[in-house]
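dumping this here so i dont lose it
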């Protein structure tokens, strides 16, 4: 258990290494917008590549956008929660993102079982991965953790742990 705690860098800073609030809100907006655009592109490419999916209910903008926004907002909220557990939370957040992304495929597997078109559902699965690919870097680099010794957030942690001015 100690090795896992060390690997995930669980040092429990309990709020002293949170991302700055302004950057967090900005990163959340960028993550939501970027994810919606990524899903829109995937839906459009799917219809071009597989014309039989034209009119597929899950490729309707309102359908995937609603679920995308919910998923990304939950992921964004989990970033500052993860930083409560580690002052270097990127690794922990990465593994949580992988686990949640894989688990989020379960409803897609279910709708394949229910007879939904395989090609369309595969694109829906790709949308889950697109959300992770967009959201993870936007949060960890766009709203990096503050240093434990810098609660005002003047210098924030970024790759390599060097100081970065806002």
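and the seq i came up w/
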């Amino acid at each position: 258990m100690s090795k896992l705690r060390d690997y995930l860098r669980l040092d429990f800073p309990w709020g002293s290494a949170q991302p700055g609030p302004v950057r967090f809100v900005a990163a959340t907006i960028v993550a939501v917008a970027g994810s919606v655009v990524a899903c829109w592109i995937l839906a459009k490419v799917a219809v071009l590549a597989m014309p039989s999916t034209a009119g597929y209910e899950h490729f309707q903008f309102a359908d995937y956008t609603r679920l995308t926004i919910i998923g990304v907002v939950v992921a964004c909220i989990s970033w500052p929660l993860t930083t409560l557990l580690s002052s270097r939370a990127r690794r922990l957040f990465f593994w949580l993102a992988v686990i949640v992304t894989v688990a989020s495929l379960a409803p897609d597997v279910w709708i394949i079982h229910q007879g939904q078109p395989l090609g369309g559902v595969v694109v829906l699965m790709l949308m889950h991965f697109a959300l992770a690919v967009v959201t993870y870097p936007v949060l960890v680099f766009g709203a990096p953790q503050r240093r434990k010794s810098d609660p005002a957030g003047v210098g924030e942690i970024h790759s390599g742990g060097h100081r970065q001015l806002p």
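The two ends are 37 Å apart (CA to CA).
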